[in-house]
Amino acid sequence: MYKALRYIVILALIGVGVFWVVTRPAQVDAAQVAQLSTDAARGETVFWAAGCAACHAAPGAEDEERRVLSGGMAFPSPFGTFHAPNISPDPDHGIGGWSVADLASAMLHGTAPDGAHYYPAFPYASYARATLDDVGDLHAYLMTLPASDTPSRPHDVGFPFNIRRSLGGWKWLFAHDDWIVPVTGETLERGRYLVEALGHCGECHTPRNALGGLDYGRWLQGAPSPDGKGRVPAITPDKLDWSERDIAAYLSTGFTPEYDVAGGHMTEVVKNLAHLPEDDLSAIAAYLKAVPPGS
After folding, report:
1. pLDDT at position 79
2. Would the N or C end of the chain have less CB density within 10 A of its end CB?
3. From which residue to which does any coiled coil extend (predicted)?
């Protein structure tokens, strides 16, 4: 009995050690971004491509109010309801005190400045593919936006999903920076970067497994809406038979080739993408036509 108990204790300690190592938060070292030459003008393009205003502007904000990132949008899910935080330059309620390394840690690793894991409602599983240059430029642009002293709303998440440390295990299983679709050529690679990284299109258009990880084997093949109402459509070439020109036009205007208009959360996406240069929208369209069709 004593020997068996000893083995159990040893195995338990090993298990705790492995868990602690696997779930430790990753952060970007300040030295990695110290030499970046950041540019707020370039950062504005990153801002719109990454959809920051779609989630972090106050619900119902329009025009210039969309640049006030006071947060508040709610995201219902099977794991609880998440609320987009204030990411304005306010030093107390926003991210005014964040460094470039802090923003890079958040976007690339899902780690807060204090070392806590962020929930993947913040799409860092996609942003992990972004470049440090783009993160630095985005930081420069965010710091030019109006500050808001609106406090961030806490998430409504119950046990066991409120155990932040366990999110390290989720990241270990499901968050990586590998490209999903192999492509070659400048246009297709730019389109892939905008779709798989900054635009995080797969976060809505790809089905998830029971733990909320994206099912990359069914990339962009459509998924149930996280709030349980309706379905997000597939945008693989076999389901979306629009031409590249039609896709690019839809992303800039919201009008489909059938003269229908974008609805739901896609209206926010179009408001963001309409700010991108025409070449970027064409690159997105080219990539979507190059994605393998669904089964």
Report:
1. 82
2. N
3. none
